[in-house]
Specification:
CATH class: Alpha Beta
Strand content: 15-25%
Cofactor: FMN
Number of strands: 7
Family: Belongs to the NADH:flavin oxidoreductase/NADH oxidase family.
CATH architecture: Alpha-Beta Barrel
Keywords: Flavoprotein, FMN
Radius of gyration: 16 Å
Structural class: alpha/beta
Protein name: Oxidored_FMN domain-containing protein
Strand order of the largest sheet: 1-2-4
Distance between the termini: 39 Å
Number of helices: 2
Order of helices and strands: EHEEHEEEE
Number of domains: 1
Pfam family, one: Oxidored_FMN
Oligomer: single chain
Largest sheet: 3 strands, parallel
């Protein structure tokens, strides 16, 4: 069985927490493949609030119990690496940096031009 990635938005301060080890461990079993939720690779790449990262020592340490919980059940665990690029938002970045993208153009498609930044707040893509 393959467990696909799901964006859960449950990593305060972008650091994996113990409840994530419990969550992934509950879904693991021998021979299964679990793909972690999208995990941001740089501080300027956030497109959703409370998503985990893997670019700081604290984040790497936070992922270790998660990986151990999955592997203890005999499953394989992959981390989906993520940078939101054009759909990142400075309100979500730790130091409020502007997003980095291959294009300076704003998103104009109405289906994607609003970005969820937490609570019930949606803002225009920068």
């Amino acid at each position: 069985m393959v467990y696909p990635p799901l964006t859960r938005c449950r990593a305060p301060d972008h650091v994996p927490r113990p409840h994530m080890a419990e969550y992934y461990g509950q879904r693991a079993f021998e021979g299964s493949l679990l793909i972690a939720e999208a995990t941001v690779v740089a501080p300027d790449g956030y497109g959703y609030p409370n998503t985990p990262g893997i670019y700081s020592p604290e984040q790497v340490e936070g992922w270790k119990p998660v990986t151990q919980a999955v592997k203890a059940k005999g499953a394989v665990f992959f981390n989906q690496l993520w940078h939101c690029g054009r759909s990142a938002h400075e309100l979500l970045n730790p130091n409020k940096e502007p997003p980095v993208s291959s294009s300076p153009l704003a998103i104009t498609d109405p289906a994607y031009s609003k970005i969820y930044v937490g609570g019930t707040t949606m803002v225009d893509a920068p």
